[in-house]
């Protein structure tokens, strides 16, 4: 691979994510994010060459929603595509927009991901993930407590406290983020005492179902510098999938796709010490336990070092390696948008535009992760500067 | 655009009413195996193999959330990249080209699958495209929507049911030269006209039959393509465009998004006169009237003269602008797969491998796909030898 | 292909749903239910009156807010006789779906055509909406559209 040209994010928009949005239909929800991104970029729809749309359609039960949504996303008489890759959809949409611009085929591309989660039945959508021959009658939900259980087995209460601290961090950060869904004032104690779902996963560890949309506008270098004073460059991105069957041969020691993705990304971009060289990380954390566990793979830590970092407070908003200053997925989860929100939030950090949830240190390079499917991973690396 | 992208290999399953003996991933594996054998390529990111997969399928059609999950296993996606386009396969091919032209990937495997036999009815699924407030409760689906377009088109330009029936007869007869179309047979215009009306003016034989199938192709950047095969088929033009959503917002007897998609593809490929410069076209007509309407949208004839073009014999295999020598979608090509199968059939023509359905002297071929109600979204690709 | 027995799993994908029309569009359904009024919406930039109404113009992406009261009469632009049966159908086959341009609207709407001889159906036919007695605030509060002369004969 050899990137033909650099691509920058020049417009960022998202809705105020909520449990309940009876005031808008899907077209209007999508439009809110699109309008926000256009306003942020100071562009109009005339300037957009292509619209890339996505969500997980079985959640709302709308077939080919991109057809209906042209009335809200500006797709009328424009080029467009629809991609859908489970929970990673939002990230795929960013990668897709990146390819479309970098290819030279399009100058300015709008990517929009959304989910109006309350309109369908999320559990139906999740259950239908399972193979109809083998798992569908057993499948209960997207997340199991197996891996969290392994952490507790090895690290005991330290692990439980760490996961609880991460949930509190997410809540504290979300209180600073006007767009976040769950804005909870909670303590470690609240988390440790919250309702047990599947040991050691508790209610407060888990992400919500949110209604929301996110839109990003990507442009080629000449246009990007014209449009934005602070273009955020997509330095690289990596998509790593895994085979369909979970746990062939038993639970693995690591989540391979995350380790493979991180290694690939770092190797390609000359990153030897991610903790030092990356300034902020928006990680797709469907549960606080997973934020805790996956730190190890994404940051290439020594086993157990993730708990050390949490105890140190290193990943707090003011820490030396902030993770999820936005409040993360445990605070906000409109699935088709969620992975894109990670990139959007990372981009806001690079721009210095995250307001109250801006990390206080200088941000030159940010990373965002997407998660979904059968433990699939996407990583995006964003930078403030780009090599000419 | 400096570098070009080429199709270096392809494979299709037989297209038949039902494939009870294969799961979707097995259908896909069948064609992936073939393209790997043709090229000798492994899955690898070190520059020597296939480094990306783009798949096309649909959650609701497959009754499977994240419908690309089972397919990942057979397209080399374990610890590698795969992205799913949830639309007609021609969109997946276009998108995959962008991935290569961006420089991010070198060699991409593209696959599409659909088992139309799996749901109780196709119409249950397509009904779900229609918004819940104004249209869904009317029981609309892509068939009844197409019938509304057919009526509007035929009324406006005086297209006759016989002309539409001739499209079907041409398709089935052409398909006899396509060994993958198991339904191919001799079919008379009379038989089409005598088939029962299902949604006036569309008769049973005017509509594409329920079909299962899958197809795969491999795309490569120019430098690699030349190493993999001595007969690369270049994709030199690409264009797509969406029309308005509500059928009443559109002039149903027109297809402005197809005109726009085609003009983009023609401009990119340097085509000034499609009728003269395109040697063969594979278009996705799901209903017989669509072949006539799409030939107008593609600029093969003036607006309203799709029927006249057909009657002139120009769109026969031996004609000036042959359309669907493979038989097209009307003889059996499942949704989602349809547009990509058209790309493959166009590539077959460019390589001269069409056997008894081969059009003579093909240098430039056109492949077309469509998604959404009444062809809301159109995709046009120009292939060159 | 030799006939072999192949295992099959049958099932049903039930997607319970509850769609919100949104604050703006809700007005349409309230007016339809309470006053048998059919409202379109106007885009001042494009100078188009849309039906079905929407809060954003898909052409220029402007927010829309100008409601326009449309009549309950219109002209048939296209139609089809649906002769197959699906659980999604509101009526038993054969029934007629039509594309109707309401008087006052610039775009057509889809609805059912009733009380019409199939042989009398043609583009250009004048139609009038027939409302349900008890309306719920949904598009089928209009039962169907019937040819206008029939309505006249019935002494409406």
What does this protein look like?
The complex is a heterotrimer of chains A (388), B (385) and C (156). Chain A is an alpha/beta fold and 388 residues long. The two termini of chain A are 18 Å apart. The mean pLDDT of chain A is 94. Helix content of chain B is 35%, strand content 18%. In chain B, strand 10 and strand 11 form a beta hairpin. The longest helix of chain B has 16 residues. Chain B is globular. With 156 residues, chain C is of the alpha+beta class. Chain C has one domain. In chain C, the strands form two sheets. Chain C has a five-stranded antiparallel beta sheet. Chain C has a three-stranded antiparallel beta sheet with strand order 2-1-3, covered by helices on one side. Chains in contact: A-B, A-C, B-C. Chains A and B meet through helix 3, strand 3, helix 5, strand 8 and helix 11 of A and helix 3, strand 3, helix 4, strand 8 and helix 10 of B.
Structural classification of chain C: alpha+beta
Tell me roughly what share of residues is in helical segments of chain A: 25-40%
Seen as an oligomer or otherwise, the chain set is: heterotrimer
Order of helices and strands of chain C: HEEEEEEEEH
Shape of chain C: globular
CATH class assignment of the largest domain in chain A: Alpha Beta
Order of strands in the sheet with most strands of chain A: 3-2-4-7-1-8-11-10-9
Envelope shape of chain A:
globular
Note the total helix count of chain A. Answer: 16
Identify low-pLDDT runs of chain A: none
Distance N to C terminus of chain C: 63 Å
Q: How large is the radius of gyration of chain C?
A: 19 Å
Q: What's the arrangement of strands in the largest beta sheet of chain C?
A: 6-5-4-7-8
Number of beta-strand segments of chain A = 11
Class computed from helices, strands and strand pairing of chain A: alpha/beta
Query: In total, how many beta strands of chain C?
Result: 8
Encode the helix/strand succession of chain A as letters: EHEHHHEHEHHHHEEEHEHHEHHHHEE
CATH architecture of the largest domain in chain A: 3-Layer(aba) Sandwich
